Amino acid sequence: LLVSGPGGIALWMDVTRSPGQLPVVRLMGRYRLPPCKQRWHTCATFLPQGGLLLFGDRRGSLLLFPCSSSDGTDRGTPGSEGTASQSEPSCLLRSEAVPLQDPLSVLFGLHGKTGVTSVTCHGDYIYSTGRDGCYRQLCLRDQQLEVLQKHRPCKGLQWIEELRFTPGGDLLVLGFHADDFVVWSTRSGVNLHCVPCGGGHRSWSYYSSPEADAFAYVKRGDVMLYHSEAEPCEQRVL
Q1: Which of 73, 115, 149, 199 sits most deeply, having the most CB atoms within 10 A of its CB?
Q2: 204 near 218, Cβ under 8 Å?
Q3: Three-state SS annotation for the chain
Q4: pLDDT band at 86 (very low <50, low <70, confident <90, very high)
């Protein structure tokens, strides 16, 4: 569980629960976000290299933090510390025992002032998306973030929410164009789906499989579901 609190301090907490017992919350790390007007994180991921945690924040910045304990053991995987005693008091009462970490690398305002929407890893690369209408491919060199490429998938897609890598090798860009939810295929360069939903300021979820696609969203207090079944391909190439 990753939460942002007062003073730009983000906490990483490990929550475990045994059957019939109350959950145990253990504080794993404390992280200081850079000073800015809107000082909270919007997304995060643990990097496969281990011992590193990447945040995206509301100011549009990418922040790389160490996530190893003070004794040098790797905390790169949630839950790696094991289960605490059920009689142990809440870890939040002893937060001063966990050192406050400053970022190893900062790309300040990379996605503009409207915020980072997702960070993910695929292969040897890191990908970030934002409400600036762009997604970026990055790499990690000597614990420093380096931008390799910047992509703007299509004109008018101002608000990119997420990237999906398909088993077939396509990269899907999920976002909002005006009042529509859009799924853009980078391989074919076309919109696979365009659903009028009222825009991006709402809760939503998208699911895709070879058999069907589904998009659920909340509008005026109602849960709406868009469902599309795959159609057989009749195209012939001469």
Answers
A1: 115
A2: yes
A3: CEEECHHHEEEEEEEECCCCCCCEEEEEEEEECCCCCCCCEEEEEECCCCCEEEEEECCCCEEEEECECCCCCECCCCCCCCCCCCCCCCHHHHHHHCCEECCCEEECCCCHHHCEEEEEEECCEEEEEECCCCEEEEEEECCEEEEEEEECCCCCCCEEEEEEECCCCCEEEEEEECCEEEEEECCCCEEEEEEECCCCCCCEEEEECCCEEEEEEEECCEEEEEEEECCCCCCCCC
A4: very low
Q: Which residues pair with 204 in a beta bridge?
A: 217
Could you tell me which of 117, 152, 147 has the C-alpha nearest to residue 134?
152
pLDDT band of residue 230 (cuts 50, 70, 90) is confident
What is the pLDDT at residue 92?
54
How does residue 229 score in pLDDT terms, banded at 50, 70 and 90? confident
Q: Return the pLDDT at 238.
A: 65
Counting residues of the chain whose pLDDT is more than 70, the rounded percentage is: 84
Q: What is the β-pairing status of strands 100-101 and 24-32?
A: parallel
pLDDT at 82 over 90: no
**Radius of gyration of the CA atoms of the chain, in A:** 20
Sheet holding 135-141, edge to edge: 116-122, 125-130, 135-141, 144-151
